[in-house]
């Protein structure tokens, strides 16, 4: 089977065409890339990105510069070439998991589309991923080898896109695990996780009663952590006992009566012990304090 020929425009590039090619590298591991505005080459290509003045997913034409654009999402963010490619191929890239594909679109694709199309309302300030991609373009003082710079940008974007998909998948898996732990909790105030799993968003969305979460650390020790009053807040629904603040090792063990108690942060939001049984004892003491 012959490799597909994928065409995008030459010269200065942006995040939408770079990430489009990065996404297609996942779908088509081997292809010939041509960067040009030559209409004859564009017409003969198998896939056309961000050039050609046509959007037709059936024939793999993904431009959005034509009069009237190429449509918009329900939230009003218009599609750039990356969004159009993702609309067709995103589900396959995410192993047919629509929730993951939607999460990647919401967190990455739609932001790049918004910036490329000038739909900047609600886009965070500061250096953006789109600006980062633009910095791969040669400066006015450098040799204008745009094709080589484009290849470098695609490799960067390809790696980042794969990590974004993995992160989205991990987030959804974590939500299921934490939701199940909340459902199975013997005491709704204390959520126990058998392995460390990102938990704050799910606990806040599903449990108004949870005060503490217990989980193993990466080193194999056990942690009890407070549930923040609000996401991102430094205030807790219930701090750990005040007499524990800043104690560690023998001092902490003397106050708690637990032989393998390790520490309690001065901020009273996290404490640890060597064993699961001991950290559960700490959690019980905190609940009763």
From TrEMBL:
InterPro entries: MYG1_exonuclease. Pfam families: MYG1_exonuc. Transmembrane segments: none annotated. GO terms for cellular component: cytoplasm. Coiled coil: none annotated. Belongs to the MYG1 family. This is Metal-dependent hydrolase. It comes from Pseudoalteromonas haloplanktis (Alteromonas haloplanktis).
């Amino acid at each position: 089977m012959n490799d597909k020929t994928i065409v995008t425009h030459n010269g200065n590039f942006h995040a939408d065409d770079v990430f489009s090619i990065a996404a297609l590298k996942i779908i088509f591991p081997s292809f010939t890339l041509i960067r040009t505005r030559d209409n004859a080459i564009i017409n003969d290509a198998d896939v056309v990105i961000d050039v050609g003045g046509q959007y037709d997913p059936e024939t793999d034409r993904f431009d959005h510069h034509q009069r009237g654009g190429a449509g918009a999402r329900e939230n009003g963010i218009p599609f750039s070439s990356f969004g159009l490619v993702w609309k067709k191929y995103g589900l396959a890239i995410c192993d047919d998991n629509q929730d993951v594909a939607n999460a990647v679109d919401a967190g990455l694709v739609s932001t790049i589309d918004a910036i490329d199309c000038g739909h900047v309302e609600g886009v965070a300030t500061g250096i953006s991923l789109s600006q980062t991609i633009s910095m791969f373009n040669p400066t006015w003082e450098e040799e204008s080898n745009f094709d080589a710079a484009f290849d470098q940008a695609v490799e960067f974007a390809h790696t980042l896109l794969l990590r974004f998909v993995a992160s989205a998948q991990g987030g959804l898996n974590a939500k299921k695990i934490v939701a199940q732990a909340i459902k199975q909790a013997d005491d709704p105030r204390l959520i126990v996780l058998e392995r460390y799993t990102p938990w704050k968003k799910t606990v806040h969305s599903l449990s108004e009663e949870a005060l503490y979460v217990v989980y193993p650390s990466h080193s194999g020790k056990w942690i009890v952590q407070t549930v923040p009053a609000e996401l991102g807040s430094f205030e807790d629904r219930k701090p750990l006992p005040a007499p524990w603040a800043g104690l560690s090792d023998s001092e902490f063990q003397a106050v708690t009566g637990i032989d393998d108690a390790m520490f309690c942060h001065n901020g009273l939001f996290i404490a640890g012990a060597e064993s699961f049984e001991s950290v559960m004892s700490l959690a019980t003491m905190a609940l009763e304090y």
